[in-house]
Batch of 2 targets.
Target 1
Amino acid sequence: MDLCYEKKPGWDKLDKQACMEYAEGYKAFLDTGKTERDAVEAIVARAEAKGYRPFTRGMNVQPGDKFYQVNRHKGVILAHIGHASLADGVRLTAAHLDAPRIDIRTVPLYEQDGMAYFKTHYYGGIKKYHWLAIPLELRGVVCVCKDGKVTRVPVHVGDKPGDPKFVITDLLPHLASEQMGKKATEVIKAENMNVLLGSIPSEHAEKDDKDKIKRAILEYLNDAYGMSEVDFLSAELSCVPAFPACDIGFDRSFVGAYGHDDRVCSYPAATALIDDDETPAHTAVCLLVDKEEIGSDGVTGMQSRHFDTFLGDLCRAQDVLLDACLEQSVCLSADVCNAYDPNFPDVSEGRNDARVNCGLAIIKYTGARGKSGTSDASAELMARIRCILDGAGITWQTGQLGRVDQGGGGTVAMYLANRNIDTVDAGVPVLSMHAPFETISKHDLYMAYLGFGAFYRD
Ligand code: MN
Ligand code: MN
């Protein structure tokens, strides 16, 4: 009997080829799903191909049924109805699809000193200096109002071969002696994070017209998207890193990409459900939400009633009270955690922080300043999850969010636990989390996929 607990890398125990192949699918998803809207579309397409149908209130709900429901283009719930009644609860995974990025403001376009720019407002917790001097692409929608009708126009610039890209410029080191002496939080002010858009004046402008470059940009946007300047008000445009996901390392054991947090959990949570054709014992649900990076508020965030309404509608079809279903349910709050980084050992505590290649990290609590802002899963629940994972031969490990009082943070776990659902955080450790280019281990990604699958089948 092994009396000691030790985190151990699991490469020697897994099907390496299957793991590498799964990572290829994940990389393709990362490149298409860089915003929550794009991620929802990709997941819905995959679910529909495996027989998932849109769920609406009043539909029959039978074992084996596969449903999905999209929440305002930015979130999606998948449900595979199990043999047991919904009164016995659901096996729920909850992950988020939004990621830190640079949002475009509502009156963004201006011209200054011979160049045109967008004003921006960063989204989520970033190190602002990370976003300077890297290629950016533009993604989102413009909703144009014409003759009393709303048309939604998708915008994608910079993701196709040959597309132009965008950039927020940085100062050359030769003139940066003052900048280099500043605190990292002050290296670039948010108001100076303006995105460079162009510099050729319009040919249609009158001689005395001011802002001829801005005019040229508006002409381009009108041509391409049928929009004028006021339509930025009803648009959601974001700049995200323009580089694709790629393998990292001679042995290709890592994936480097934008937005692993939290696609490295939402992708395995969704695909583990979608890929399994067998009707589960309990209804299996994958909940993918938006707005986690800014506090989970709003109609598309985890605090929205959308999830309760959806599950309530499912329950009503089986004559089950929503509250009865919730109290029997179990949830893996599928979000990333920090991976111990040997380059920055001082912020971690080696025994408890998760390590790359040691598998799916189960995190009893997150929070900060004495466990504030966490639901702190019970010992009973931790044991139950351990049993499921061990039973399925999953390599898993414990995790925590760095040294105590080093900082901290939270996940959506508490919002699910507050609904009377037994909830624990389970996710993939990430290096350089919240940087424009994050790194994860393919082994851990694959363990998340297998682990979530075992959980759904429990
Ligand atoms: Mn996250
Ligand atoms: Mn995050």
Note: DSSP finds ten helices and 20 strands in the chain.
Target 2
Amino acid sequence: MSSFDELEQIREQALAELADARTTAALESWEDRYLGRKGEITQRARLVGQLPQEDRPAYGQRVNEIKRLLGQAFEARAEEIKRTELATQLSAEAIDVTLPGRPVIPGHLHLTTQALRELYAIFGKMGFEVYEAPDVELEAYNFDLLNIPEYHPARDMWDTFWVKDTGEESGDRRLLRTHTSPGQMRAMRERCPEPIRVILPGKCYRYEQITVRSEHQFYQLEGLAVGKGITMTDLIGTLTQFARLFYGPDKAVRVRSSYFPFTEPSVELDAACIFCHGAGCAVCKYTGWLELAGAGMVHPVVLANGGYDPDVWSGFAFGPGVERPAMLRYSVEDIRLFYGNDLRFLRRF
Ligand code: FA5
């Protein structure tokens, strides 16, 4: 076969193979095979020196023509393959925008936050403003200034988490507040000699056994009113109004006498247990009543520590939990559910 015929044969074979190439990879290997540095056409071009002198110009010209032709055919095929590959990819990744969307489950407020907001609204109607006090407290505010000196047996009422760092204030020990009552002292010292009507929401911490009705971390919503001529009747009216607005007018509640070092006289507010209807259960400690709040008339020593002359001023204070009253309002049978992070529970509200 003459060198010219060989050239034409390579051309035909190359064009046939190009027509069969279906992918970019096949195309690249075709390009290597025919047009690359070691490809068929390049090798043929090198043969020109071995031909008889008279054939060389025609042969060289034909090689160049075929090279150009194959180059053009390659570009055209590459364009086609690119288009088909894109079309395949688009149809594979096609999104059917007519399909119904997947529902997004939006978050919502935690039950404690819902209860707190309701309590703010209730006490807001009675003229109480929100006052914030710190979670990490000085021992003096949590205990001593509230008429609970060191070694007072009443300190046993609040098992305490102590904080190691004593801080700047003259080595006074720090703790995680065991109740929101220290906020009373902060409000009095800041507001004195003005009358006061505040609520103090916040977390409390106690080193105690967790049960169906007790957590080691829970909320309280302290209330404090200081003025001239405030009496026990005002306190009981406020507590019963709170219960009416939170539970509705028919809820059975009672106020019974109690003891707290920072109030005199002291009381506790109970509400009828909804879980056993009086028969007795673990939530109500088998009494038929669940204790919601401690309360009382601010002790004269505490008033004086806050800067108010107890012969001129009087006041009442109360301290309900938040989760415990909420248990009866939203029918939560175990306080541990509040912070157990079980979504089935959280989504109930
Ligand atoms: C106190 O903490 C007093 N500071 C309340 C007070 C304020 C009395 C102002 C007088 C004047 P007590 O320890 O009883 O009191 O707690 C008050 C309320 O907090 C309880 O009635 C209950 O509703 C809630 N509570 C107490 N301990 C826990 C606990 N471990 N888990 C959940 N709630 C609790």
Note: Residues 56-92 form the longest helix (37 residues).
